[in-house]
Amino acid sequence: MFRISALSIPLCVVSLAGGALAVEQPEKHAGPAVMVHFDYYRTDDATLRSLEQRLGKAIKKAQVGELSESELHLDGNDGYLYMYGPDPDRLYDVARPILRAYRLTANAEITKWHGTAKETFLLPPGKTPHPVGAGGRTPNRSE
After folding, report:
1. Rounded to an integer, what distance in angstroms lies between the CA atom of residue 95 and that of residue 85?
2. How confident is the model over 78-126, as pLDDT tens digits?
3. Which residues share a beta bridge with 71?
4. Measured between alpha carbons, how far is 68 from 82 in angstroms, rounded to an integer?
5. What is the pLDDT of residue 125?
6. Which DSSP letter does residue 72 get?
7. Handedness of CA 128, 33, 39, 50 (dihedral sign)
8. How far apart are the first and last CA of the chain?
9. What pLDDT is recorded for position 2?
10. Distances 92 to 46, 89, 140 between C-alpha atoms, Å
């Protein structure tokens, strides 16, 4: 009986020490850094493949992460793009202009994970070339 008690004390100490190490480490999100949720229809296959190729090349060239496989819900018309990388902001900065260029992702919902915190928003439309003033007219320089 003494041997069991003597053995259980070191195991208890090791167990507690291991738990303390886990608490000290920052929590990480186990999933993607960026997720893009968009409306998908079977007729969008060619467009989706083109989008995936452009995103994959741009992400690889910028060395900010990688594009994973897309998830398509054929019965619910939902599509998801998953991107992985150490910095979700840099990853999104590379992907944003490409996502804006495709009708397929024009109204996409973007989710970025920073550790366990997440930020979800709609993909903002591209910038208009000229600012518009009151009444829908372009202001001149003197205004």
Report:
1. 12
2. 999 999 999 999 999 999 999 999 999 989 999 999 999 999 999 998 7
3. 80
4. 5
5. 84
6. E
7. positive
8. 90
9. 44
10. 23, 5, 34
d(CA 93, CA 100): 11
Using one digit for the tens of pLDDT, what is the confidence trace for 34-87? 999 999 998 999 999 999 999 999 999 999 999 999 999 978 789 999 999 999
Q: Taking the alpha carbons of 7, 9, 10, 11 in that order, is the dihedral positive or negative?
A: positive
Q: Which residue has the tokens 């060619």?
A: 46
At 106, is the secondary structure helix, strand, or coil?
A: coil
CA distance 107 to 127: 15
Q: Are 105 and 36 in contact (CB under 8 A)?
A: yes
Give yes or no for a contact between 110 and 98, defined as CB atoms under 8 angstroms apart.
no
Is residue 70 within 8 A of residue 48, CB to CB? The reply is yes
Q: Taking the domains of the chain in order of start, what are their residue ranges?
A: 34-122
The DSSP symbol for 101 reads T
Give CA angle at 70 (123, 98), nearest 5°: 40
Query: Looking at the domain that runs over 34-122, which CATH code has it been given?
Result: 3.30.70
Residue 3 has φ and ψ, to the nearest 5°, of -65, -40
The reported pTM is 0.68
Distance CA 71, CA 39 (A): 12
